[in-house]
Amino acid sequence: MRKPDGKIVLLGDMNVGKTSLLQRYMERRFPDTVSTVGGAFYLKPWRSFNLSIWDTAGREQFHGLGSMYCRGAAAVILTYDVNHLQSLRELEDRFLGLTDTANKDCLFAIVGNKVDLSEEHAAQSGEACSSVSPRAPKQVRPEDAMALYKKILRYKMLDERDAPAAEQMCFETSAKTGYNVDVLFESLFDMVVPMIAQQKAEGPPQTVDISSCKPPKRTTSGCCT
Ligand SMILES: Nc1nc2c(ncn2[C@@H]2O[C@H](COP(=O)(O)OP(=O)(O)OP(=O)(O)O)[C@@H](O)[C@H]2O)c(=O)[nH]1
Ligand SMILES: [Mg+2]
């Protein structure tokens, strides 16, 4: 298996649809899911690179693993449910701190999923009122997500002028219908790949490969030679 060139991590509260989004994109279906335990990844070849996309558990008891999964991430997809305002708040309160281990130039996408359950989406897409899903007004507006994106830039001490615009990085999706799912992943891949290419051109990271270090030889007297 070829080593991944870059890493993208999905974070967010339990039940917002992280696993469903990833399965919709990678497997082109919307299967029944069970709440994720720990984390799992898919490998996605994109252009001439190999990306790993990590699905993580939103449940509180797995919280401690989050920063481990984010280590060295080139992009983080912060996911919430457009019908639950608290899931957006959790991104700031519980998940943003986990991204401190990500790359310095890590990109952040903010994704409001389950848009198919909102009245506005049904009206825009011209769906009949008799559709199976119960509809309610959306609890989170796109502007709320964009405000969070700008807060994240401040938290990361990034200048808004140097980072991608909020409009480019905030998405509304439905893993159920597939709405905007390809756009989300593929526009992020297209942003991440040039950064990975640049890092590769600049050379390997300044780390030591400890597997190549041999322990010092011991003499019979136990002293080093
Ligand atoms: N209507 C609708 N339901 C969705 C959507 N995405 C996910 N779901 C449902 O929401 C529930 C939770 O989805 P998951 O993908 O397992 O959520 P998760 O974020 O991975 O949850 P954890 O693994 O516990 O962190 C499941 O019953 C899904 O079928 C969507 O876009 N629309
Ligand atoms: Mg899951």
UniProtKB/TrEMBL annotation:
**Entry's Pfam families?**
Ras
Q: Which cofactor does it need?
A: Mg(2+)
Report whether Membrane shows up as a keyword of the record.
Answer: yes
Keyword Transferase appears in the UniProt entry: no
The EC class name is: hydrolase
Cellular location(s): Cytoplasmic vesicle, Phagosome membrane; Golgi apparatus
Q: What keywords appear on the UniProt entry?
A: Cytoplasmic vesicle, Golgi apparatus, GTP-binding, Hydrolase, Lipoprotein, Magnesium, Membrane, Metal-binding, Nucleotide-binding, Prenylation, Protein transport, Transport
Q: Which domain of life is it from?
A: Eukaryota
Q: Which reaction does it catalyse?
A: GTP + H2O = GDP + phosphate + H(+)
Task: Name the membrane topology term.
Answer: Lipid-anchor
Single annotated GO MF: G protein activity
The UniProt similarity line reads:
Belongs to the small GTPase superfamily. Rab family.
Looking up NCBIfam families in the UniProt record yields:
small_GTP
Its protein name is Ras-related protein Rab-20
Lineage of the organism: Eukaryota, Metazoa, Chordata, Craniata, Vertebrata
